[in-house]
Amino acid sequence: MSHYEAPIREPLVLGDKSYHDITEDIAKPIEGAANKNWYIAFYISLAAMLWGFGCIFYTVGTGIGVWGLNKNIGWAWDITNFVWWVGIGHAGTLISAVLLLFRQKWRMAINRSAEAMTIFAVFQAGLFPIIHMGRPWNAYWVLPIPNQFGSLWVNFNSPLLWDVFAISTYLSVSLVFWWTGLLPDFAMIRDRAVKPFQKKIYSLLSFGWSGRAKDWQRFEEVSLVLAGLATPLVLSVHTIVSMDFATSINPGWHSTIFPPYFVAGAIFSGFAMVQTLLGIMRKVTNLEDYITRMHIEYMNIVIILTGGIVAVAYATEFFIAWYTGSPYENYTYLSVGAATGPYAWAFWSLITFNIITPQLLWFKKIRRSFIWTFIISIAINIGMWFERFDIIAIVLSKGHLPSTWWRFEPTFVDVGIFIGTIGFFFVLFLLYARTFPVIAQAEVKTILKSSGEFYKKRSEQGIPTKPAINVASAEGTSDKNNKE
Amino acid sequence: MASNKKYWKSVEELKDSSIVETLSKNEFVQDISTDAFLGDKETLENSSTSRRDFLKYVGFTTAAASLAACEGPVIKSIPYVVKPDDIIAGVADWYATSMADGYDFANVLVKTREGRPIQIMPNKDANGTTSARVQASILSLYDEKLRLKEPTKAGEAISWTDVDKEIVAKLNTLKEANKPVVLLTGSMASPSTSKIVEEFSVVYPNVKHIIYDAVSESGAADAMLAMYGKRTLPNYHLQNAKTIVSFGADFLGDFHGGFEKAYVNGRKPETGNMSYHVQFESNMSLTGANSDKRIVVKPSEQVFALLNLYNAVTGLNISSKATAVDGDIKKLASELKKAGSKGVVLTGLNDKNAQLIAFAINKAIGSEIMDTVNTLNIRQGNDAEVAQFVADMKAGKIAGLISYNTDPVYTLSNSSDFSEGLKKLELSVALSTENNETVNASNYALPTPHFLESWGDTQFDSVTYGLVQPTIQPLFKTRQVQETLLTWSGNTTPYYDYLKAFATATILGGSSWNTALHNGFYSMGVAETNAVSGNLESVVSISEVGNQLSSSAKKATGFELNLYTKTGLGDGKQANNPWLQEFPDPITRASWDNYLTMSMADARDLGFTNPVKDNGAIDGDYAKLSVNGKEVIVPVLIQPGQAKGSVGLALGFGKTFGLKEEMQVGVNAYPLYKGGNNIQYNVTIDKVEGTHQFACTQVQKTIAGRHDILKVASLKDYNTVAPKDHDNGWNKPAYVSYDHKEVEAKTIDLWDEHNRELGHHFNLSIDLTSCTGCGACVVACHAENNVPVVGKNEVRVGRDMHWLRIDRYYSSQVETREDAKELGLGIADTYKALETEAENPEVTFQPMMCQHCNHAPCETVCPVAATTHSRQGQNHMAYNRCVGTRYCANNCPYRVRRFNWFNYANNNEFDFNMNNEYGKMVLNPDVVVRSRGVMEKCSMCIQMTQATILKAKKEGRPVDTDEFETACSSACTTGALVFGDVNNKEDKVTALAEDKRAYNVLDYLQTKPNVIYQVKVKNTNQA
């Protein structure tokens, strides 16, 4: 199982860990009682979620008029939030699928949570296309299902319809992929569970995982196949989301650069969100040994790369808007008109948070600092929200006909729904952190000997690791077989 | 004969088996155990219903009960028991009638459906025109809130019989005592009514008839009387004019009832006949906005400019003062002299002397444009008589007042005097359609019907005799004023008979009454027009007139207030009409308000601003306006093109009595309207605390360098330069690069075009030269398409629902980026310069509605295909398929799609006409009322085009040339909107679609709209 890794590579698992220690560490949050901080966080999130649901009910009951939209600006926070949440999801798939294909071992500590984040983010994202409809009770009309309305069928020309397919495919593949990875870990919890109810639940969740070699073989094969399936989704989902804009005719939206630029932006924002979440989680659940400085640094490197792509895209957009010489391009979201107009604050927020702030990550010290990383990740989250807000609100606020120029101001309902989705997201994530194995322990165990600090040190000191392997693997096996 | 046949059902029965007998007596073959169960008390008590059973029963009954309760509301549709001959359900009837409400006068056609009038259109045969107010008056018919419903005395209901008895007795008492009684009415322009009033005065010689118009044009009428011996208003045949010089006369607005049709007929570039129009004014009026040259002068300067023009034209030298515009005046004097009989001077100053000077200039140049023979009988109000009457009444010299169709308590500047006098009266009777303060203060309140429920006649000019006929049974217990006066005169003839006899005897000259009634008018033949021939000097010396005029203007100090009427509300009679309140002013595009218009320079000096809030809405500061010791607090709206040192304020707002709370908007300017003079000098303005919230439908004022949206050419360029000329072309199409060559955008296409030659293909042509921005089409569209009213707050945040809007653009100091570059402006300054309107801008109007693009961006993006294209060129909107993603609206480059943010019908939050039973009667049954959450937009009146097609089909004929119409094109007074079928080569629109002036807005997008605009041509090269 293990392979050789150069000793100068930093270890991926810190401390003097045995296989059993890993099991204990991962199972602890699930088996133990939640601490006070968890409850505080949970209730705040729950309150936000309920407030958001209240706002949603108010919207559905009264009309979209309770939002700040108007005749010229038909989308604002709704679609901003949608794109933002979809974008956040991308990191999870990239980490678990693309990095799997590239055999990046460092993904193992973070892929579970990143994927959970993906799924929970897609839940939030999926809310918006439904509730932003004037008549959400007819939302099922966007599905190509046989119906009794005569020959009515969906419009396959519409990018919104592509969204429906893209998002639903993405959610289902991500969910299956995530669940497949969870099977051995659920089985581990099942095997350790002492309460019958818990045992029952985890038995169901683990789909009868038995730990036989055949199970492992199939597990590896399915993971690979699903990774292969999920990888194009990393590219396709945000490509299609970007087409909502790119295929339209609004200056600032009608841009062929959008698909790659949106994908890069999505990964950029997704990694930032992973950093934010893991920065908290590793502390709260005492997983500092598994989510290490190196993980953080690696992710920061991805952020620099994708952030760079995004910055180049911004520059291109700005240049092209100017270069066309068209008076209609004067006020796109990246233009002098936007930089000096009523939305200058949003424009400069975007530039500051998305272009300037990530440049700090060129410094190794900052890149490896947990606190700096956390701050920068928050900045990027904000910046990426503004990117979408700018694209939507600034562009729509300066349409083709100057007589239709208008502005947008959110109402408490707009804000409430956004906060509500954040609350909903954290409610799901916090519940997940208490009930799911947050690190793919089965996978981490496979690299313990090649990348664990303890074993690396031993091999550096010239102590042969072979007997240790025997001991450790025996321990590991017993871990799986002995029901504690 | 009885039959002996026996019918049997079975062999057993045939054989008369006993079992059949037994069974037939026992309905239930098996024993039903109810008796055993319920009858035996013991078993019943011992039996136990288990909890499960109980829950089952409860569950079932609850479910059954709630299912039974889920029945939808039942709306009964009741068929006619006896169907009226002339009503076919689903087929509209049109009646010709006339409107004369004291301020608006029009020959109109009324569309009725199932006995309900639902729309008003101009009676084009009678040369009738409609304005926004005339169009909207249909809704005032159904104003259940404001209309008087039954006669009352001191607030108590009283029968008409008692009313007649009491009032006739009182009138006789007053007659015997020879105490004066005044009959105060608005202008009626009705020959039969004049005769009735005359007869009434014969019966009661103590009755004096005084005409009072809230908004006075007394000056012109008095001047006519002085110079030409009759108290009417001159007519202006602007269609023949070569040079028009106007001093503040808003003749495309309310001046003498408006001359927009004649004006536009004189400005057709393709005929080569285009008048040159110069407007001197202080407020930015519709007329000034349409002029070729607008010269900004404050009111007192207008007086001197007028006198200087007189001096320059005649070579005389009457007392005046030099003005800043004397250079223009000199040039104009020679222009006018050159134009001679084709020149005309008008002035909007409601001052007899000013009007006399204008008449004198017209006489001096021999103008044939001003017609003093075929004059106008509207706006007959006599300020002097009214002033005398109010003074007499206050002094207690008047004993009785019968008022009809006026509200002096609201509209008089000295209304407190009037109210005081009213209390001293022995008899005060108010006849009125609507409740108002005067009605409330009078002893008797007698409801009169709306004009759509009345008989009557009109004569607005000397040529056309109009008839008024009812289009609906009276909604309330009303009686016409004519009927009432006849009754009180002791004449028992019903008014209808009286009218018919009168018309037949004196007007119709032997031609059929029925034909006249059917046509709505009778043409009396044109009296010969001749040049101005009146004699002024015989009455009063011109220098005396000039002296009086200039000496009063010389007294002007401080700010000068120019009171005006808005296109929407006019004199304020229809202030409770939500369509008119929501109608955006053509110039300021503000709805639901009046405001002080102030020049940009004065606003800078005094610190007034109009900041745009984050939600897109405009705010304003308040000013305290002091005029003649009266003070009002008004919000200030900065108006480009307002003369420095002058301010404008609209009359007709600030009415509160009886109005719905939502309609109680604006400030009453009538208290400032001293002596009926629209110019008030010596005004002081102070900024006061507070922020006013405006409801404007457009925020950005300039076109920001995007000149291909609205193309304007000078007459000279139009005549001499090729439209597509590479450098100077005035109608250059969009070009794109294709195979590295510059080609016209429309020559390349991504798709194979459908064959559009089949069937009908609709186009709408909009001539920007002819469009004056009057907005009649906006209200017509409102009425035709059941467009909801959303109220001030929703308009403010950009949610007006107008399917058809008229964009208004001001020119900026710097019009293009090239200009800015030449001026050496930096990039930020260039943006600012392009976005900021000029201090005295040129104004352009652009009606904008769904462009019905053949390559519609909205159609491709709808996920549920709710908006699709038809073979007829119309872009359809299937409301009941729409899920409301609003993607279509975002992708519409013209932003003409309107979303139902809320339920606008049957919703107390939107308590307008769609929320009450009367108001709903105006709804067009052919157009569905949209629910919340769906998108809506202009349909190119598909219900009208389909009706036309079906009618032709039923009659077995092809659709006639120019038979297709939309509400906006029918309502358009000036013919700017032309609708038709481009597959019919004879249709007017087919030629217009190919005209050299034709262009599509945003043609570079290649949306291929079916709405065509015609380049605006302005005669700017002269003088």
Which percent range describes the beta-strand content of chain A?
Answer: under 5%
Radius of gyration of chain B, in angstroms, nearest whole number? 34 Å
Biggest interchain interface, per-side counts: A-B, 57 and 65 residues
Major sheet attributes of chain B: 7 strands, mixed
CATH fold field value of the largest domain in chain B: Alpha-Beta Plaits
Number of domains of chain A: 1
Q: Report the oligomer.
A: heterodimer
CATH C-level label of the largest domain in chain B: Alpha Beta
CATH top level assignment of chain A: Mainly Alpha
Number of strands of chain A: 0
**Main beta sheet of chain A, described?**
none
> What gap, in angstroms, lies between the N and C termini of chain B?
111 Å
Number of helices of chain A: 17
Write down the overall mean pLDDT of chain A: 88
Placed side by side, the strands forming the largest sheet of chain B appear as 5-4-18-17-16-6-7
- Do you know the CATH architecture of chain A? Up-down Bundle
CATH architecture of the largest domain in chain B: 2-Layer Sandwich
Low-confidence spans of chain B: none
Radius of gyration of chain A: 24 Å
Membrane topology (chain A): Multi-pass membrane protein
Protein name (chain A): Hydrogenase
Keywords (chain A): Cell membrane, Membrane, Transmembrane, Transmembrane helix
Family (chain A): Belongs to the NrfD family.
What distinguishing features does this structure have?
heterodimer, A: 484 residues, mainly alpha, Formate dehydrogenase/DMSO reductase fold, 17 helices, 0% strand, globular, disordered C terminus, B: 1023 residues, alpha/beta, Rossmann fold, Dimethylsulfoxide Reductase, domain 2, 5 domains, seven-stranded mixed beta sheet, six-stranded mixed β-barrel, 34 helices, 29% helix
Write the layout of secondary structure elements.
The complex is a heterodimer of chains A (484) and B (1023).
Chain A: H1 19-31, H2 36-62, H3 77-101, H4 111-131, H5 159-192, H6 196-205, H7 213-246, H8 258-284, H9 293-323, H10 336-340, H11 344-356, H12 364-367, H13 370-397, H14 412-435, H15 441-451, H16 453-460, H17 466-481
Helix pairs in contact in A: 1-15, 2-14, 3-4, 3-7, 3-8, 3-13, 4-5, 4-8, 4-14, 5-6, 5-7, 7-8, 8-9, 8-13, 11-13, 15-16
Chain B: H1 11-14, H2 18-25, H3 34-39, H4 41-46, H5 51-69, E1 93-100, E2 105-113, E3 116-122, H6 132-141, E4 152-153, E5 156-157, H7 160-176, E6 181-185, H8 191-203, E7 207-211, H9 218-228, E8 233-236, E9 243-247, H10 260-265, E10 267-268, E11 273-274, E12 276-281, H11 286-290, E13 293-296, H12 299-314, H13 326-339, E14 343-347, H14 352-365, E15 370-376, H15 383-394, E16 400-404, H16 408-411, H17 415-423, E17 427-432, H18 437-441, E18 444-447, E19 456-458, E20 464-468, H19 481-488, H20 495-507, H21 513-519, E21 521-523, H22 542-554, E22 559-565, H23 578-582, E23 590-591, E24 596-598, H24 600-606, E25 619-627, E26 630-638, E27 646-651, E28 679-693, E29 695-696, E30 712-714, H25 715-720, E31 735-738, E32 741-744, E33 762-767, H26 776-784, H27 792-796, E34 805-810, H28 817-822, H29 827-835, E35 843-848, H30 857-861, E36 867-869, E37 875-877, H31 887-890, E38 898-899, E39 935-936, H32 942-954, H33 967-971, E40 977-981, H34 988-993, E41 998-999, E42 1011-1014, E43 1016-1018
Parallel strand pairs in B: 6-7, 6-16, 9-12, 9-14, 12-13, 16-17, 17-18, 22-27, 24-26, 30-43, 33-42
Antiparallel strand pairs in B: 1-2, 2-3, 4-5, 4-18, 8-15, 10-11, 19-20, 20-21, 22-28, 23-29, 24-27, 25-26, 25-28, 31-32, 33-40, 34-35, 36-37, 38-39, 41-42
